[in-house]
Amino acid sequence: MIWKNWIFLLGLAVFATIWAGCETAGPKEQYVCVDDEIRVGDRLKISLLDIPTPELDKEFDVRNDGTVNLQLLGSMKAAGKKFGQFERELQQAYISKQFYARITVVVKPDVRFYTVDGEVKGPTRMVYVGPTTVLRAIATCGGFTDFAKRQRVEITRANGKRENVDCKKAQKDPKFDVTICPGDYIFVPRTVL
């Protein structure tokens, strides 16, 4: 009799564990778009102001190691930093190395892009002008072709992370229309006939 109760309690515990595991499926984690972060491959426009001979909008590329090579300062780590943070670091470096007693540094991104490819009417690289969504990005490329697999649109984020979007669902409910960020690659696959 004790064995039957023990087996019953063990079965009940296993069932409760499985049941609790089934109920914990929460909402999908949203990708957070960070517009003001410097990335490898970005072209930066850096201005040095409040100095005897101001330098305006000099262009520097963020190299694969995440650095930019600046006049007087040499190689400085930029990737992963916010623009304001990088401005303050440059300003402090110019002053601490006594190149200037007072300086204002302005760092801004050059043109940024996202790409839409695959089964859209006009696949292209688009200029990122501000927050947009996957449906808007596809619409700017002329929309889907007749052969587009709208339920499995693939987004490869600038950081390499991948996600799939059901654009049919997103057209019915805007909460499923995900945000597109600079550097993202959107691929619309072809349906299998």
Task: Please describe the topology of this protein.
Elements: H1 2-23, E1 43-49, E2 55-61, E3 67-70, E4 74-77, H2 83-96, E5 104-109, E6 112-118, E7 124-128, E8 132-133, H3 134-140, E9 153-156, E10 162-165, H4 167-172, E11 179-180, E12 185-188
Shape: elongated
Secondary structure: helix percent: 25-40%
- pLDDT under 50 segments (min length 5)? 14-27
CATH superfamily of the largest domain: Outer membrane lipoprotein wza domain like
- The CATH class of the largest domain, by name, is Alpha Beta
Residues in β-strands, percent: 25-35%
What is the ordering of alpha helices and beta strands? Answer: HEEEEHEEEEHEEHEE
Helix/strand-derived category reads: alpha+beta
Number of DSSP strand runs? 12
Number of domains: 2
**What is the CATH fold-level name of the largest domain?**
Outer membrane lipoprotein wza fold like
Biggest pleated-sheet summary: 5 strands, mixed
Query: Total number of helical segments?
Result: 4
Q: Terminal Cα separation, in Å?
A: 62 Å
Q: Indicate the mean pLDDT.
A: 85
Q: Architecture of the largest domain in CATH? A: Roll
- Widest sheet, order of strands: 7-6-12-9-10
Radius of gyration: 25 Å
Structure description:
The protein is α+β, with helices and mostly antiparallel strands. The chain has two domains: 67 residues, 2-Layer Sandwich (wza like fold); 77 residues, Outer membrane lipoprotein wza fold like. Helix content is 25%, strand content 29%. A five-stranded mixed β-sheet has the order 7-6-12-9-10. Strands 2-1-5 form a three-stranded antiparallel β-sheet. The termini are far apart. About 7% of the residues have low confidence.
